[in-house]
Amino acid sequence: MPYPFQITSLEEYQLRYKQSVENPEKFWSEVAESFLWKKKWDKVLEWNFTEPKVEWFKGAKLNITENCIDRHLAEKGDLPAIIWEPNNPEERTRVVTYNRLHKRVCQVAQMLKNNGVKKGDRVCIYMGMVPELAYAVLGCARIGAIHSVIFGGFSAQSIADRLEDAKAEYIITCDGAYRGEKVIPLKDVIDDALVGNKTVKRVIVFTRTRTPVSMIKGRDIWWEDEMLYAEEQVEKNGVVKFDAEEMDAEDPLFILYTSGSTGKPKGVVHSCAGYMIFTAYSFVNVFQYQFPQVHFCTADIGWITGHSYIVYGPLAAGATSLMFEGIPTWPDAGRFWNIVDKYKVNILYTAPTAIRSLMGFGEAPLKDKDLSSLQILGTVGEPINEEAWHWYDENIGKKKSPIVDTWWQTETAGILISNLAGVTPSKPSWATLPLPGVQPLLVDESGQEVTEPDEEGLYKGNLCIKFPWPSIIRTTYGDHERCRTNYFATYPGLYFTGDGVLKDKDGNYRITGRVDDVLNVSGHRIGTAEVENAINMHSGVVESAVVGYPHDIKGQGIYAYVIYTGTHDAELTKRDITMTVSRIIGPIAKPDKIQFVSGLPKTRSGKIMRRILRKIAEGETKNIGDTTSLLDPNIVEEIKNGKV
Ligand code: WTA
């Protein structure tokens, strides 16, 4: 049975797209009808992109966890909501039924309540990929606390910054996390992050690795003890109950920090109703989900992809979502294929960087793996090159599984541009068409709509969206002005994505990458300014400039030009700089290449000409372009001839 809002043919796509543009309110209110509301809305949409202010389903009351869990219990109570594959394939797997999920989420909600957490309080979650992470996220949502999940690869300093920005009073973490052969001491990192912190009152620690941890009286408590106590409160005579908080449609659901082109990461805020509707809608349509298919999204819940397509989207659609604790290359490079085979996965959603990395191992890891259950493949996070696309298509999808190339962002919360699996055509390395309800617009530097194609018949420009969709970013936490200047001020009246794009005559979009100073390294968003600030913290470093360069596996690598005046050994210092970045941001932001230079190419007004640095990092030393406006054109020669 298709979902009421599932689009199942090309004709229907075209019709629904047209309707969604002509009457967006009608379109989205019809989608919204299939959710569970405590009270219906007074108004479907109120918006302007000047402040900006966007309100969807104003006046409606709901709780997203009742939509993700409770309403499925009657039919699917004993069926799997989450299937969990541990890091170690020898360890017992866990199948979490909807009933079990309900109970656990009620327990977490009760545990949080017992510890004083109230609606609107910020709870920071720093955990590995264990089912308890999903329970924690949903437990917050059940009582209306705002969760802020931080990816396990961020450093204590990054966590400290986020805790402070969100003024978080509660943390949920693990003693440690397994990642391949490694054990990451998460609680230890949290302890470091808490030095000097004044807001955090409680740290709840879930035991996963039984790594020794410090437990501070009055602050740190064990998840297991608290959950046991909460169980007695929520379960009476076998009946589990914890009343879900009644939330306004526009109440914030979560904060998720992401990198921009300037300053520190910003806390993107999403709201309850719009987020719920759009993640479920996009999940069901893009992947053409049908119960009881098993959906395997390989992302980490610390990123938006995990929020939307491991937890909320699939559960709101009553799907079975597979969650994997480990990494694709451990114990060997066949791990994903093992999982597909073991659980008969039907939908596989991963990042191009993972595909490229696995491609490097050749076809051997695929031997003896039965991938015949796969029906739909997806990619996300960065442009996919044609070679990787075809490898995925031939070796994994066996040329019978449509590939969806899904373009979206933390700020959009859900997929905006993608083919719908098997419904609208795919085109290798093209994200193709916008989902109904999404209105992209291509503009040139001056903000004029691009109406003239180039000689190849392609329209080229910067990607904007001209009309709100339900899960558009509402604000950046604690600083609405930042939201306005970052996304709504470059081109007045439009949401600016930061991405460059090509469009063909049939209306297909191909994302070419960021046009701002944001890097996309292995599908992770990293701001060049952030990395520069971290490098500049190293003693002896005077200044630095960071650019991206093409990297076979990561998509983009980080290239740092550094003015170092210290007297220590250059090679050792480069390692120290790398360590400094790792400490300040996290291992994901470590530069791949560091070049010491005596100066940086700057204009007379002091602006670094990154265009030139990018060219040199790409190995392009001939067509550097005009350097006459530089304060010291000689520096370019020096940099070109320098070594990494
Ligand atoms: C890039 C991840 C090309 C893009 C969901 C965007 C993509 C940034 C694609 C957002 C795609 C995402 N093709 N590029 N299919 N999907 N991107 O916030 O540059 O971590 O702006 O969200 O990833 O990254 P974020």
Task: Describe this structure as you would to a colleague.
This protein has 644 residues and is an alpha/beta fold. Among the domains are: 98-248, Rossmann fold (3-Layer(aba) Sandwich), CATH 3.40.50; 441-516, Roll (Luciferase, domain 3), CATH 2.30.38.10; 519-641, ANL, C-terminal domain (GMP Synthetase, Chain A, domain 3). It has 19 helices and 32 strands. The strands form ten sheets. Strands 5-4-19-18-20-21-22 form a seven-stranded mixed sheet, with helices on both faces. Strands 7-6-8-11-12 form a five-stranded parallel sheet, sandwiched between helices. A four-stranded antiparallel sheet has the order 23-24-26-27. Strand 4 (80-85) and strand 5 form a beta hairpin. Helix 1 packs across helix 2 (24-32) and helix 10 crosses helix 11 (304-316). The radius of gyration is 24 Å and the shape is globular. The mean pLDDT is 97. It binds 5'-O-[(S)-ethoxy(hydroxy)phosphoryl]adenosine. 5'-O-[(S)-ethoxy(hydroxy)phosphoryl]adenosine binds next to helix 11, strand 22, strand 26 and strand 27. InterPro entries: Ac_CoA_lig, ACAS_N, AMP-bd_C, AMP-bd_C_sf, AMP-binding_CS, AMP-dep_synth/lig_dom, ANL_N_sf. This is Acetate--CoA ligase. Residues 13-68 form the Acetyl-coenzyme A synthetase N-terminal domain.
